[in-house]
């Protein structure tokens, strides 16, 4: 039986931490798993300069979203131009994902719900109520408050929005 392949799949380039990162992410998100690990064979090792038998790619799934992590070497780094958004229903979820994803990450890269994890990948940990608050009759209040935050505080946003 052939498995249906997801049409669009994020492909993440790591130096040599693809498997470590995939395991880190799958431990944070519920209903997540490592789907497969492929290793460099002789031809791939020769072309990439990576040792034969080491991890080449790791296919993993985070709450239904499939991604692939590649050990491609130190040639490319993540930037804030690409990020994953984690939509949160409560402050407890915001706190949980913020704490887990930012552990070991770059504290200087934290603002407005954005953070960089210990692998340099950017995440946005965003409460779902934010959209409504920045689209209310006076969206500038909530937006101004959010711009002052690192981790988003839902109660503070609501207080500010209400005046």
Give a quick precis of the structure.
33% of the residues lie in helices and 29% in strands. It is an alpha/beta fold and 163 residues long.
What does this structure look like?
With 163 residues, the protein is of the alpha/beta class. It contains six helices and eight strands; from the N terminus they run βαβαβββαβββααα. The strands form two sheets. A four-stranded mixed beta sheet has the order 1-4-3-2, with helices on one face. A hairpin with a 2-residue loop joins strand 6 (106-111) and strand 7. The longest helix has 12 residues, at 91-102. The relative contact order is 0.13. The model has no long low-confidence stretch (mean pLDDT 92).
Which features would summarize this protein structure in a list?
8 strands, single chain, four-stranded mixed β-sheet, 163 residues, alpha/beta
The overall strand count is 8
Span between termini: 59 Å
Globally, the shape reads: elongated
Average of per-residue pLDDT values:
92
Helix content estimate: 25-40%
Residue fraction in strands: 25-35%
H/E element order: EHEHEEEHEEEHHH
Spans where pLDDT lies below 50 across 5 or more residues: none
Q: Structural class of the secondary structure composition?
A: alpha/beta
Q: Numbering strands along the chain, what is their spatial order in the largest sheet?
A: 1-4-3-2
- Radius of gyration, in Å, reads 19 Å
Question: Major sheet: size, sense and barrel closure?
Answer: 4 strands, mixed
- In DSSP terms (H or I, runs of 4 or more residues), the helix count works out at 6
